[in-house]
Amino acid sequence: MSHDLFEAARDAMARAYAPYSKFPVGAAIRADDGKIYVGANIENLSFPQGWCAEPTAIGNMVMGGGRRIVEMAVIAEKLALCPPCGGCRQKIAEFAGPETRVYLCDEVGVQKTMTMEELLPFSFKTEMLG
Ligand SMILES: O=c1ccn([C@H]2C[C@H](O)[C@@H](CO)O2)c(=O)[nH]1
Ligand SMILES: [Zn+2]
């Protein structure tokens, strides 16, 4: 992964709105249009109404004209690694393939690389709709 994706995720993390958890998360997507789309978690006083960094980045990608995730970086301030939560894995999978790589980063750089198949094995597939 090139350094620009990591730096984009780190910059996005700095813009997180996480006054309740104090757990800022940043995400950066390199999309099929060649652009980088970023997101951070955005919390709410009504706690369940807040959302994760990954869907912010996905929303920015879709609205910006990107359609597929080529690769993605996720970073959190307080953990060595921030594995995407279950809901985020399903959301990422919608725009990714089994070999799409997700880079789990700390403030130094990429610490772990995972494929979507590793993050979300035996996932619900469109074929199952019949
Ligand atoms: O994959 C994840 C997991 C958690 N969070 C956010 C949600 C919440 O604002 C904070 C603490 O759970 O971290 C993310 O952004 N992405
Ligand atoms: Zn999540």
From TrEMBL:
InterPro entries: APOBEC/CMP_deaminase_Zn-bd (IPR016192), CMP_dCMP_dom (IPR002125), Cyt/Deoxycyt_deaminase (IPR050202), Cyt_deam_tetra (IPR006262), Cytidine_deaminase-like (IPR016193)
Enzyme active site: 54
EC number: 3.5.4.5
GO BP field: nucleobase-containing small molecule metabolic process; pyrimidine-containing compound metabolic process
Record domain CMP/dCMP-type deaminase: where: 1-127
Origin: domain of life: Bacteria
Gene Ontology MF, one: zinc ion binding
Gene3D superfamilies, alphabetized: Cytidine Deaminase, domain 2
Binding site for Zn(2+): 52, 85, 88
GO cellular component, one term: cytosol
Catalytic activity: cytidine + H2O + H(+) = uridine + NH4(+); 2'-deoxycytidine + H2O + H(+) = 2'-deoxyuridine + NH4(+)
Cofactor dependency: Zn(2+)
Keyword Hydrolase: yes
PROSITE patterns: CYT_DCMP_DEAMINASES_1, CYT_DCMP_DEAMINASES_2
Keywords: Hydrolase, Metal-binding, Zinc
Similarity section: Belongs to the cytidine and deoxycytidylate deaminase family.
Purpose: This enzyme scavenges exogenous and endogenous cytidine and 2'-deoxycytidine for UMP synthesis.
Official protein name in the record: Cytidine deaminase
Species, as recorded: Rhizobium rhizoryzae
